[in-house]
Amino acid sequence: MDFEELLKQIKDELLKVLGESYADYKNESKKDVEAFLEASKDKLERWTKLLANTELTVKDYEWLLKSQKDILVLKALYQAGITKQRLGHLKNKIIDTIVNVVVGAIF
Amino acid sequence: MKLKLFLSSLLFSVLLSCNTLKTAVYDQYSYQQTISLKVESEALIEHATDNFSNHEVEVNDLVLELKKLVEYEKNKPNNEITYAMIKLMADQDKNLLAGFLKRWENEQQLSQVFTNEAKAQIMEAFDLIIKYEANKNKENKQSILDYLGN
Hints:
The complex is a heterodimer of chains A (107) and B (150). The model of chain A has no long low-confidence stretch (mean pLDDT 84). Helix content of chain A is 89%, strand content 0%. Chain A is elongated, with a radius of gyration of 23 Å. With 107 residues, chain A is mostly helical. Chain A has one domain (3-106). Chain B is elongated and about 75 Å long. The longest helix of chain B has 38 residues, at 112-149. In chain B, α3 runs antiparallel to α4, α3 (28-45) packs antiparallel against α7 (112-149) and α5 runs antiparallel to α7 (112-149). The mean pLDDT of chain B is 88. Chain B has helices at 2-16, 18-21, 28-45, 56-74, 80-90, 97-107, 112-149. Chain B is an all-alpha fold. Chain A binds chain B through residues 46-47, 50, 55-57, 60, 63-64, 66-71, 73-75, 77-78, 80-82, 84-85, 87-89, 91-96, 98-99, 101-102, 105-106, and chain B through 3-4, 7-8, 10-11, 14-15, 17-18, 21-23, 81-82, 84-85, 88, 94-96, 99, 103, 111, 113-114, 117-118, 121-122, 124-125, 128-129, 131-132, 135-136, 139, 142-143, 146, 150.
């Protein structure tokens, strides 16, 4: 089994299906599909081999793919949280600087 | 005068945006409890190749602990991210810890290969939550250092 070829087929099919349903968001869909496949490539390859060797059932395979989607959601939440914390620090610095400048200008 | 007015307006807008950027502080209980759940989950998942009925009590205990943590995180202020993360783990309709336990109950017994792969996924999910909580500690230290620096 040529996994790279299979991956290309999955990507083409996903883009086709998403393109039909979300035509207005074609570019965003393409980026999302590429990001998902890139982040999941090694696992997808391993699970696909296990499925081909009948060590995983189709239901197992589907369950694992969905778990990968959930992990990517967790990663997005993690990243959003880290960004929020950094912005919080930036905000504190901005407040300190403004207070210093305003106080300096007024008094 | 215009400069003063501009700076005052800027300060006012920044202060108004404060609430949206607040993050709950590091919580030792959350950190320890999540690690404890991870270790207990790993030990229990390894038994998913056995019949579910032999482990039903342990599964129910673990689900109860997970629900307690969800409630704890839910009621902490400015804690939306951690709450959303732990809620995913506890959602039976998602494919992480609670979803795995539900599938085990439905199928009664799971294969060794599937159990190993699912366990790796669930452990990775726990690591992200633990890492996020630990990062709050790092950020708290930075806040204290910033404060002391002023």
